[in-house]
Amino acid sequence: MKKALCAVAVLAMLGVATFFGLGLYSQTGSPPGLVAGKLQPCPAKPNCVSSESAPSDQHAIAALELTVPPGADPMAKVRDAVKLLGGDVIQSNETYLASTFSSSIFGFVDDVEFRREAGGSLVHVRSASRVGYSDLNANRKRVEQIREMLNP
Questions:
Q1: Quick one: which of 66, 88, 141, 145 has the most CB atoms within 10 Å?
Q2: What is the C-alpha to C-alpha distance for residues 48 and 83, in angstroms, rounded to an integer?
Q3: In the chain, what are the domains?
Q4: pLDDT value at 79 more than 70
Q5: Mean pLDDT within 138-150
Q6: What whole-number distance in Å separates Cα of residue 119 and Cα of residue 105?
């Protein structure tokens, strides 16, 4: 009985250590950026959503509608929403915003990027985990929270 409990304890500690290691590893990257003026495609894992994915793709999510008064910074509302949700803005200009969000327990980093179509009100979004396979829909939920904040 004691050997079984020790084995379970060792396995649990190895599991926790693995998650901490992956969390640290995810902190070494950076947002992928634009490729030919578009957001990077999602990998073949379910831990990513993108409004530039095909509608039939499991990664597909609707783009964000953004309305701003003339002369205002078009991405200011997005930047404010990211900050209110606890994200860090890495890069921002009138057409592109890159941000990161970290999980509270293991420090896993997710990249959330926004690309505003030139002269339009449509903002494409991509939210993806840097490591792992599943994210338990955390990226999709985050994008929907941002959508609600932009369109109360």
A1: 66
A2: 20
A3: 2-150 (3.30.310.80)
A4: yes
A5: 95
A6: 40
State the DSSP string of 122-141.
EEEEEEEESSSS--TTHHHH
Nearest in space to 134 (alpha carbons), one of 69, 45, 29? 45
Question: What is the rounded distance in angstroms from the CA atom of residue 11 to the CA atom of residue 87?
Answer: 33
Residue whose structure tokens are 């530039």: 52
User: Token pair of 87, please?
Assistant: 């994200």
CB 62 within 8 A of CB 148: no
The Cα 136–Cα 114 span in angstroms is 22
Length of the chain: 152
What pLDDT shows up at residue 19? 47
Mean pLDDT across the stretch 111-123? 89
